[in-house]
Design goal:
Layout lengths: L2 H17 L8 E6 L2 E4 L13 E4 L13 H10 L5 E5 L2 H9 L19 E2 L8 H11 L4 E4 L4 E5 L2 H24 L7 H8 L2 H18 L2
Parallel strand pairs: 5-6
Antiparallel strand pairs: 1-2, 1-4, 2-3, 4-7, 6-7
């Protein structure tokens, strides 16, 4: 995909993430454009005025105007060749469950798109250096999402739509987990049940992204 097209998709993803209530003043999204990473500047995603900042995948320093947490994105792309987009946000319920030590498991079909259990990076400090970003990427492993105790979450995808849709699903799944825990004994989907949903993952994530984007545009 050409850089200009990725820039347009990044703006769409940023505005949609903000409209969905997943970020306020903080958060960023990025995507690969050829051999470079394009990441949103350190501005509120709902009112971006600057163009995405280009980063070299092998960068040893962050250029001026880059979010200080850009190290997270670089570490994930370096560790996960399958990842083409990253979303960094602060979903409230998911963050609360991570701090409470309550695991987020697939209690409904689409929850399977977050894996059998969302891993937690147990370090609440800002991730603004290469070493800690590498530790976060290890905590993510091959999962589609990782919670950061006291510090929001990261979701990834084969494209920006998947990354943003998963962030929205993470918050929905967190609310379902919290409600189920309060009501009784949560029953997670079995491995076979998760596999059945995962067979339709690409299709359903695409439809969810289309819905989220249309909802934002309809109310803009």
């Amino acid at each position: 995909m050409k850089s200009r097209e990725v820039e347009e998709d990044l703006l769409d993803a940023a505005l949609t993430t903000a409209h969905a209530g997943l970020v306020t003043a903080f958060g960023h999204v990025s995507a690969l454009a050829g051999e470079r990473v394009l990441i949103t500047p350190p501005q509120p995603l709902g009112s971006l005025t600057g163009r995405p900042v280009p980063l070299d995948l092998g960068a040893d320093d962050l250029p001026e105007g880059t979010p200080k947490e850009a190290w997270i994105h670089l570490a994930i792309y370096r560790a996960r060749p399958d990842v083409r987009a990253v979303c960094r946000a602060q979903p409230e319920t998911a963050t609360a469950l991570a701090s409470a030590g309550v695991p987020i498991r697939p209690l409904h079909g689409q929850g399977a798109f977050l894996g059998p259990e969302v891993p937690v990076f147990d370090d609440p400090r800002l991730v603004r250096d290469r070493e800690r970003a590498g530790e976060l990427a290890k905590a993510l492993g091959q999962a589609p999402a990782v919670l950061m105790r006291g510090n929001g979450a990261i979701t990834v995808g084969a494209d920006l739509g998947q990354a943003v849709a998963r962030m929205w699903l993470l918050e929905v799944s967190a609310r379902i987990n919290a409600q189920a825990a309060a009501a009784g004994r949560p029953r997670a989907l079995s491995a076979d049940e998760q596999a059945a949903w995962l067979a339709a993952e690409t299709e359903l994530l695409s439809r969810l992204w289309a819905h989220l984007r249309a909802d934002r545009r309809g109310q803009s």
